[in-house]
Amino acid sequence: MYKIQELYYPGKYAFSLHFYGRLLIYIRQRFAARAFARRGIYNPRIRPNSGYSVAGMNRFESRRTRELKMSDQNSLKSKKEQGQELHETGFVVVKGLVPKERRDAMREIARQQLAEAAAPMEFEADLKYPGAPDSKDAPGGHTVRRLLDAYVRHSLFAEFATSPEVRGWMELYFGETPYLSRAHHNCTMTKHPAYGSLTGWHRDVRYWAFERDDLVSAWLALGNETVDNGALWFVPTSHKLSFMSDRFDEAKFFRSDLPENAALIHTAVSPALEPGDVVFFHCNTLHSAGKNLTDQVKFSLVFTYRGASNAPLPGTRSASKPEVPLV
Known about the structure:
- This protein is an alpha+beta fold.
- Helices cover 27% and strands 19% of the residues.
- It has one domain (4-325): q2cbj1_9rhob like domain (Jelly Rolls, Sandwich), CATH 2.60.120.620.
- The strands form three sheets. Strands 3, 4, 5, 6, 7, 9, 12, 14 and 15 form a nine-stranded antiparallel sheet that branches. The protein has a three-stranded mixed sheet with strand order 1-2-11. It has a three-stranded antiparallel sheet with strand order 8-13-10, with no helix packed on it.
- It is globular.
- The termini are far apart.
């Protein structure tokens, strides 16, 4: 059982507002954990540790595995049930959405484009996240993080982005015609063993500009994704939470040094993905990713969608590229 003091209890003043705020977070997350259990998803209760940080996520995971386990029952859920899960928890994994031949072909294309250094690209050194090279002149400075504008890179990528399976999912969620944003994500994500950086906790919408913060991303695993090679982590139900700006740093990363934030981070789960699995997640869901501790590059394909009524704001980056209606 949890003990109250294990939730970063600030001191002896048990009746402080600070304490009750964290108690409410705890109660909310316990209800979320029970909801996961009812769906056949394993989310073990991990005792909060005041020494845990985003930078230590991989080391902490090696001691206490918290990888999200998807049961056979979960894989047999109806699309409607999975859509409801996305609404409730902020993310959902759909097993085997892309057939083997197609995903293998896409992975081979991604490998070839990486080997050719096919522009446009984003480098780890451009972002300077933890573990990334200091500059392009430093060792590993030309490690690629993203192969950009995936929609026009190859017809197979475009076919997946606008496929009937994805269109059906987005129509179910938005209840209207979905649009593919070419300004956000729209890339092949790579994570390299040596210089692939750790991504801190954040909401994708931090740099986006739409009429509403209501977009969904589709993350296709082109290979196995686990905590060992830098899989995604999500904080369940976090897309429903409101935060003051001081809960984030200047780069709009969720501050892991704050006790109230750390309590939320300790509820995170990491879906173990197999090739062809797709995880759909809301733009306000807090998520992160660790480093790649294996000897193989990890490849993922990522696209973002909005509903027809949620237009990008004129003059912003979100409106900088033509969008693609899924009709």
